[in-house]
Structures are given as structure tokens and as C-alpha cells.
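Researcher: Next sequence.
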Amino acid sequence: LQRFLKGLSSIASEHDVIIQGMDAGKIAGKAHIDHAISKAMKAMENGTNIAKDLGVEMMRYASGKRQIGEAFSIGLSEGRLDVVFIIMGAPENVGEAAKKVSSLVEPSDVLKHSVSKNEKLISQFSITDAEIEAVGEDRIPELVLERVALVDILK
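Model: Next structure:
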């Protein structure tokens, strides 16, 4: 894992981009990522960020956790894992960096929410049985978005 992360860091430095990888099993779809990115960028712009690094701040929001240490629960871990990469920077740099990152992994479509992710999502975001009973299992992605929105409020 450490060698892989160093490789990502080298690609990021070489292309002047931010690369953040997250466990795709804990991502409830594109809206989840978009919301986390938006909240993190707004926090950085407003000076309300907790992390000094935009990638870590995105993880903080995406994880639904206020504490940086807890945010890493959504990050990469040892072993084979479905991963979502966020690459941010100048468009021409992002494209080149994405090609290099793609060469390190087996690309597949893992961003969309699927029922197979529900167990990890319920655990990651502390979704209760009562919440699921109230709104239904098909609304788990919306409960995740709610947790992302609440990161700034929960202390």
C-alpha cells in the first residue's frame, strides 16, 4: 500500500494535481463525491477547513466524519479493493495524471450505488435500522448525503 501511495504522490507532483483515492464500497454514487468535493472546496475557500490538504478535507466530508483520523476510514487499505480516484487540477494535467493512475489499476465502473454497498455504507455512516425502516433501503444514498451535509454541524 505504501509503495502504491508513493506512486500516486509522484504522479500528483509530476502533473501538479491532487489525487485522492477512496474505498468505492463506501461511496454512495456520484452525488456523494460531488457533494464532498463541493463542501471541501467551500471550506478551504472560507477558511473553515479542518485539514490543511484539500484531498484530506474531501475525505473528511466523503467519510461523514469530522475528525481527520476518522476520515481515513474511507481511504485506501491493504489488499484488493474497489477504488474511486478524485483527480483535481488544470484540465490538461488531470487528463495526463488520470492516464497514469489508470495504468496502475484495473479500471471498472465502481462509482454508482448498488445494493452490494449497503452493508459498508450503513456501517461507515452509522445509519440506524430505524432510519432504514422510515425511508427504505433504496434511500440509503440520500442518508449518506445527509451525513456529508452534517459534518460541519456535528462536533
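Model: The beta strands are 18-23, 83-88. The chain is about 55% helix and 10% strand.
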